[in-house]
Amino acid sequence: MSESQAAGDVARIIESAQRLGVEVDETEATQWLTAMAAMKVDEQIVVDTRTGVFGHAVTMLDFSPDDLAYFRQMGQLVEFVDEPGVETALALSGSAAQSKIQTYPGDCDFFERVNIQAETREAACQTLARLVREKALATAKGPTYQLMEARFGSYPADVMRDGRAYQAGSSISWTVAEVSAGKIEVTDADGREQTITWAEAALDSGWIKLDWVVADPVRGQLANVSNMLDVTWEAPDGSITPLDGYLDPYFQEVYLDAASIPIFSKLSQHVSANALDDYVARLEKEVSKYVSKQINYGKAAKRMYNIFRLTGRYHEAAFVRELFDEPASMLYQVWALIRTIDEALQPGLDISWETAARQADQLILKVVEALEGEEEAEIVRLLLRLRHAMTTQSDDPELWQAEVKASRSAVINIVNNFFYEKLTALPEIKAYMAQFQG
């Protein structure tokens, strides 16, 4: 794409944006379009020699190092460290990896590759079980954090657990107490009680993810922080086998330490030749879900942006890119943080009430600064009610949950309306979404 072609595309984007009341940074949009068109999607990784971070060339265009110190501090909590026979590479993912354009990120998501060298697959699974259990218990609770959940293993059959049905193959969620005990109790299809042990879960680990609530003492705010693992077994002959059956591609990850390049390079050689097509197909399944079943146009927009930028639909990608900086999109972050406040106030947590209250106050100020008119008044009213309910949360948990639900519902409704209106106003994106909506 020449400079004149990029300018022409930007002119089209600006015309569409002005019609919809969306602000566009013309210079930045032109630079991004020109850079995207000049590179190949399968281009090798790019290393920022100044900061030591690296990632796919397309991904690095959207990453800003401004908050790198903050992310590395969070990474010290969530990361798995190297040891003999275990190699790791920690990365940012999700909106945290797109900090140049995601002005209002939701959660702080990490992704980590863990390669286990062992004589047998079973031995690798045993090492994995030890690593995850040790990590969960070591970070279960601290002055500024609390582990909320560990996802580890898959149900071997259809079961009932705590009155809820789970299908065979679905992910198992563990509390800290259950991780410590090393087992969970379920009921099978015949009503018989069964025990699933941590060691058994390791043999079919499925997707592995740990979630924490963190009270950042520097920023004075709460955050949901997670780490999702992609675990591989390296056999004595050098062959690499993903323990969940699938080696994740690397199209949305920013790795935090250049020292991880050797392990990343070794594993990336085993990524499927169809990795890009598979990745786009997985994202499209999620787009379909969020525009037709579990309606969330904010999540759909984030996934469509990744699809468009990786499949050469740069005009659509550049337009969606601008939406993430709009004031109304800030409510997506508010929606996520209301859940974080709720989790931080759960019984048994050491995170102070004052920290949660300060976060609620910050949300109210953000809404006042970003919005105006009836939308601002409605959201501020609900957040003030939520803030008041915090004072009696432990005495009246039903009222508290009602306020949490009302606030989140109102916020996500505005987010959905905003993204739906903007996305469907661009004919190309409207047509793209229509194929998933029947």
Notable traits:
two-stranded antiparallel sheet; 438 residues; 11-stranded mixed β-sheet; single chain; alpha+beta
Describe the structure.
By secondary structure, the protein is of the alpha+beta class. It has two domains: 45-271, no CATH class; 279-438. It has helices spanning 3-20, 26-38, 57-60, 68-78, 121-138, 176-181, 198-202, 261-268, 275-292, 297-310, 314-323, 330-344, 353-370, 373-389, 397-424, 427-434; strands at 45-47, 54-56, 86-92, 108-117, 141-142, 145-154, 159-161, 164-166, 171-174, 183-187, 193-197, 208-216, 221-234, 240-242, 254-255. Strands 1, 2, 3, 4, 5, 6, 9, 12, 13, 14 and 15 form an eleven-stranded mixed beta sheet that branches. It has a two-stranded antiparallel ribbon with strand order 7-8. Strand 10 and strand 11 (193-197) form a beta hairpin. Helix 1 (3-20) crosses helix 11 and helix 13 runs antiparallel to helix 14. The mean pLDDT is 88.
